[in-house]
Amino acid sequence: MTTVTTRTVEYPADNLTMIGYLALPAGTERRPAVLIGPEGVGLSDVERRRAEALAELGYVALAFDLHGGRYLEDPEEMLARCMPLLADPDRMRGIGHAALDVLRAEPRADPDRTAAVGYGTGGAVALELGRDGVGLRAIGTVNALTTGRPGEAARIRCPVWAGVGSEDPIMPPAQRDAFTAEMEAAGVDWRLVVYGGALHAFHHPPVDHTVRPGVGYHPRHAQRAWRDVVALLAECLPVTD
After folding, report:
1. Cα separation, 169 vs 157, whole angstroms
2. Which family does it belong to (predicted)?
3. What is the pLDDT of residues 215-233, one digit of tens each?
């Protein structure tokens, strides 16, 4: 197992001081880099472990923050912050660009080889970076079948992979159809995987606080979705020694 180095990084975004989590692979050479966006509750150890896992694979990984260092356990507080954010593409892009700037400024990161992977609200941020024309190599999302402003998906310059649970009430079939129609109309290289029997946030291990209805962990599909994300990165952003 390779040695991974980690540290927190502070940076301004959305009128807050964000606290991200950076994981660096062993060695000194530049490596491809990946942004990791969290669910609406905010950055947690789940995303930190994912950053470390990607660093083990040879990527520079930054798990970015949504709420200025806070983790929003109360569903009502989370919705009060995330719903206006999800309705404001420019705010989401601001959060994404700020994190991407930090990642690309890291000396170990190759700024010309970056990807964005996000879950829930963090996935919506990743998609908005694509719709803003950012030069990413891949975008991967889970539970984030958000649609953007008309025509802006044509600016996406990389493959998009999306995963969703078949029983997700927050991302129902009508939302899936709207998302795929947007991607298809824009000529995006897109894929959608529907994980049978899975709810919203099926990838996220159980938490010890109240969650919204329709949220539930599906360990088998969680493992499959992670393998699918890793496969996307291996295809579009390979690590070369």
Report:
1. 30
2. Belongs to the AB hydrolase superfamily.
3. 999 999 999 999 999 999 9
Sheet order of strands, 16-24 included: 5-13, 16-24, 60-63, 31-37, 109-119, 139-142, 160-165, 190-195
What integer is the mean pLDDT of 165-186? 96
Q: What angle do CA 43, 112, 107 make, to 5 degrees?
A: 65
Distance CA 28, CA 38 (A): 28
For residue 154, give both structure tokens.
Answer: 């044509």
What does 213-225 look like in DSSP terms, one character per residue?
A: TTB---HHHHHHH
What's the token pair of residue 14?
């959305």
- Is the alpha carbon torsion for 10, 13, 17, 21 positive or negative? negative
pTM of the model: 0.96
